[in-house]
Amino acid sequence: MILLDEPTERVCAAIKSGQLAPVRLAIVAPGGYGKTAVLDHLAGAPGVRLVDDAHLLTDAELSEVARQLDDESAGLVIAARPHPRPSALNQVLGRLTGQLVLRPFDRLCTETFLARAGRPLAVDTVLAQTGGVPGFVRLLAGGDGELVAAFRHELDQAGEDSLCYLLAVEAGADPDLLAALNLPASTVEAVRATGYLGPDGRLLPVAARALRELVPADRRIALRLRLIRRQLDRSGPVLSLVRPLIGTGVTGADVATAFEVAAGEAAGDPALAARLYEAAVRAGRPTAAVGTRWAEAVARTGDFDTALQLADQVIAADDAVDRAEGAQVAGAALAHRGQLARSAELFQWSDTAAARCFAVIGLTGSGRLAEAEKLLGKSAVDGPPTLLAGAVSSAARGVLESVTDQPTVALSTLIRSAEMLEPVSDRVLLPDSPAALGALVALHSGEAAIAEPLLERAVSSGVLVPRHRLLLAWIAMLRGDEEGATAQLRSAGEQLSPRDWLFAVGLRVGLARRSSDLAGLRRIWIQAREAVVRHPVDLFTFLPFGEFEVAAARLGERDRLAPHLRQARELLAGLGNPPLWASALHWSGLHAAVIAEQPEEAAAHAAALSEAASAGPYFATIARAAQCWLEVLGGEVDAVAVETAARDLHGVGLCWDGARLAGQAAIRTSDRKAMVTLLDCARVLQGRPGREAVEHTGGVRLSERERQVAELVVAGLTYKQIGDRLFISAKTVEHHMARMRQRLGAGSRGELLAELREIVQVAS
Fold first, then answer.
1. pLDDT tens digits, 456-482
2. Helix H segments across 479-557?
3. What average pLDDT does the segment 109-129 reach?
4. Cis bond upstream, residue 104 (ω within 30)
């Protein structure tokens, strides 16, 4: 079947009609472009000799063609590839008066051809495979048998150098590497003349497929190894060359080294890097030489058991040069498994600058304050003051400040650490992220509005995504947004580290309790018991353990949890009972005591909360709420005080807690008017979105952080001043403003400010 484009069709029609007589025309194009199809179309044209594959003619045959041109009335159409170009052919082509240019099929031509051929193939797929080369489109439409047969003939005719070049291009060799093969200059011209290469010099997919099917695997591998050796000699990238060799069983020093180098290039894809390190070992590289990096790659995929096995082999090998780094990987893996104390020991043994910082976090989290403070003084940066070094150091300092200083100080330090780490977060295996640690501090101090954007940015970075999503779910749960919490919990996935699984179980327990799903709570309690046994208590697990404590009281299982809560109290005592962390445990303990109807125990927790009230507004709020709970338990319900405390709890992000306080007070008062008021308060606190979503008259919702930014912008503060006030960067403020402008459809800054003023007035 012949299909010509419109310009070619017009020229052919003029030749056949004699309008262009005598015609002296050349058709020079690579293989597959349709030269033979044009000549077939011209068959029978009067007074015209048709010559195909002129590049293959002998000098004698070309001389005979040239003699025909001596007759000025004789017509000639001669077709040839651009290469080879013998001098006799050049002489013939030089005497012609025109050239017909053949082009690849466009989308319309391809669609038409396939329709005529009766082949229901996807046009875009055919174009992607063939580059629109007409001959390849025809072969693809003809089926695999015809396609392979045609390429087999072409490859059988190709010279050794041309085949070597084609295999090198198929292997992904760049121009410099191709040049390093030292092939004759004419080889590239010969390969281009086949039509196998696209305009960018890359092999067309249909041709690459033919090479893989027709050239024996051992020959392709031999050529690939040759390229790899040259690339290693010139310190060039090898990932694209090495990747297809994974699993082939190829061994040897060169390929083992190449696998190792390629694994380093694949650092952004830890699963691929892990496979390459494994291939390097199988090819002959000693495990001790790559074990640490292999363990780190495996750990970043979430396989902490394998990572620990590999890192342990390195630590135990006296001749391993990177034992300290291996210990650091093991320490990080253990932190993810919830073994914070053992993790800190490995970090201390590693004794690198980063490891010492991680050890400070682990020691603080496991209640060993004196050791942490001492070690922080030794955590000076060994090397250059990079972003990573600064971020890790700030994270350690922020965690220590959460115990020894004001919560706002610690939160500010951890936020700066998270922002510093963002550009380089994919370069190191973290035992925990500054964003997660900052979010925990924020949650323990009633600053969920600060934690939320911090976690959202961490999720977008792609590092420790399940960890950050689970903390976002926790924020939603505290606000009473069960649907949002469930969605975030589901997004975290099922393949969780033991630490993340603990939080996931804690969320399921909390959601079941808040929805009064006693049957569901009993079902999830089985997992909660397992999580409690598997995961030691540390400072950063008080949220899930607090949920377990309240649920245990509801289910009559408090004795089962008692030893773990005793460990938590001992841990807090070792840290000097810092209000930030201790208050969370006393708040959950208060609720457990209320459910268990233990007024004396509840009073003890309330007293502890009162002692911490001076730590900040949040702590004062929960201390007042605790006193209200005591009064409610004693049958004394001051409706005004309860409503104020409930609304204050709602204001600091404890929305469900506020509604529950109002509801419980309502059912315990004998004053009908107070009961109605408190029930109405409980319904309002449960039913409205709260401060986190202010409804604009136009239907646009602003997040809590956007509302804060809007209020401060309307008040006349600069981006820098707003950033300082909210513990975020000026660039982040600018990002919030740009997003609000887009969502509100404001055409100018003036329009945006007008919209924001209206929103702030509605919210107030």
1. 999 988 889 999 999 999 999 998 888
2. 482-491, 498-514, 518-534, 542-555
3. 89
4. no
| Other beta carbons within 10 Å of 116 | 12
State the pLDDT at residue 698.
Answer: 47
What does the longest C-alpha to C-alpha distance in the chain come to? 123
Report d(CA 50, CA 43) in Å as an integer. Answer: 8
Least confident of 236-240, 317-321, 754-758: 754-758
In this structure, what token pair is assigned to residue 383?
A: 């090397």
CA-to-CA separations, 369 to 375, 405, 576, 634, in angstroms, rounded: 10, 13, 9, 39
List, for residues 635-671, the tens digit of each pLDDT value: 888 999 999 999 999 988 898 899 889 888 887 888 8
Handedness of CA 251, 252, 258, 263 (dihedral sign): positive
Residue type, 346: L
State the chain's mean pLDDT as an integer. Answer: 88
Is the pLDDT confidence value at 388 over 90?
A: no
Alpha-carbon span 141 to 144, nearest angstrom: 9
Burial 614-626 (b: 16+ CB within 10 A, else e): ebbebbbbbbbbb
| Cα–Cα distance for residue pair 194/732, rounded to 1 Å | 55
Question: Integer distance in angstroms from the first to the last C-alpha of the chain?
Answer: 76
Cα 223 from Cα 161, distance rounded (Å):
12
What contacts 258, CB < 8 A, 6 or more positions away?
A: 228, 231, 232, 238, 241, 242
3-class secondary-structure state, position 80? strand
- Measured from the Cβ of residue 365, the count of other Cβ atoms closer than 10 Å reads 28
User: What secondary structure letter does DSSP report for 21?
Assistant: P
Higher pLDDT residue, 277 or 704?
A: 277
Give ∠ CA 34-89-204 in degrees, rounded to 5.
Answer: 35
- Side chain identity at residue 283, one-letter code: A
**690 pLDDT band (50/70/90 cuts)?**
very low
d(Cα 321, Cα 578) in Å, to the nearest integer? 41
Q: Which two tokens stand for residue 455?
A: 């976690």
Instruction: Spell out the residues 6+ positions from residue 533 whose beta carbon is closer than 8 angstroms to its own.
Output: none
Which DSSP category does 727 fall into? T
d(CA 580, CA 754): 39
* Contact yes or no for 645/637 (Cβ under 8 A): no
The torsion angles phi and psi of 120, rounded to 5 degrees, stand at -80, 60
**What is d(CA 143, CA 110) in angstroms, rounded to the nearest whole number?**
16
Cβ-contact 299, 337 below 8 angstroms: no
Chain-centroid distance of CA 283 in Å reads 30
CA distance 580 to 406: 8
Q: What are phi and psi of 64, to 5 degrees?
A: -65, -40
The pair of structure tokens assigned to 418 is: 């998270």
Strand partners, 741: none
Q: Which two structure tokens, joined as six digits, stand for 667?
A: 């059912």
Q: Using CA atoms, how far apart are residues 454 and 164, in angstroms rounded to an integer?
A: 54
Pairing of strands 701-703, 693-695: antiparallel
Partnered with residue 78 across adjacent β-strands are: 26, 51
| 3-state secondary structure (DSSP) of residue 78 | strand
Structural contact between residues 209 and 216, judged by C-beta atoms closer than 8 angstroms: no
Beta strands at 75-80 and 98-99: parallel, antiparallel or unpaired:
unpaired
pTM: 0.73
3-state percent breakdown (helix, strand, coil) of the chain, nearest 5: 70, 5, 25
pLDDT tens for residues 493-503?
A: 998 999 999 99
H/E element holding 583? helix 579-595
